[in-house]
Amino acid sequence: MLGVVAPTTVVEPILQEFRPSAVAFLFSLDFSGWHRFAVALDVTPWKGIALGLVCAGALSLVIPATSYWFIAAWLVPLCLFPVLQVHRRRTYLTASALVFVSGILRSSIRAVPLHTIQSVDVSYPRFGSAVDVGDIDVNIPGDRILMFGLRNPTRLAQLILDAREAGAGSAVSQTSA
Predict the structure, then answer these.
(1) Phi and psi for 144 in degrees, rounded to 5?
(2) How confident is the model at residue 141, as a pLDDT?
(3) What integer pLDDT is reported at residue 20 of this predicted model?
(4) Alpha helices, DSSP H only, in the chain?
(5) Residues with Cβ < 8 Å from 134, sequence gap 6 or more?
(6) Which of 8, 11, 16, 84 is nearest to 50 (CA)?
(7) Of 157, 162, 161, 155, whose CA–CA distance to 147 is shortest?
(8) Rounded to two decimals, what is the model's pTM?
(9) Helices (H) and strands (E) in the chain, counts
(10) What does pLDDT average to over the chain?
(11) What is the CATH number of domain 4-168?
(12) Please, what is the Cα angle at 34 between 31 and 37, to 5 degrees?
């Protein structure tokens, strides 16, 4: 069954899943301007890199430094854990919320109710508009959520705004009844 468990434990159908495009990671090193640098810092899998360093350090205590396995003990965790962290990031749009799921060893779920979204902005990296890959900034009170490297971001941003308006319309019709 396709659905997301929100903090209220109500299972809602998924309207849209947001996943980074395969070409999106080509733009992660595009530092043309402060915004792109901030995006790169925001989407870098810091927890995966830290976990990889800890595992590599622990393995290097056991494996002799003269062995070729010593190099593998450092390279495998340093490559594996950041990839796992990026791969496990998911964003779902439901009828009432944007749901963010992430985590390497355990999943964390954050649901942002659609009615709290103030604005949705779309930006493209230097060559992103040529392949229709860009970023979506969702602004909520006191926070900003970045969805990085999405294919057709203008259409996806419009889906978020349409779902927010549909939710606001149903809330108005329930209160007037």
Answers:
(1) -135, 130
(2) 92
(3) 73
(4) 34-43, 46-62, 68-87, 128-131, 153-176
(5) 122, 123, 124, 125, 128, 149, 150, 153, 154
(6) 84
(7) 157
(8) 0.65
(9) 5, 9
(10) 75
(11) 2.30.29.30
(12) 45
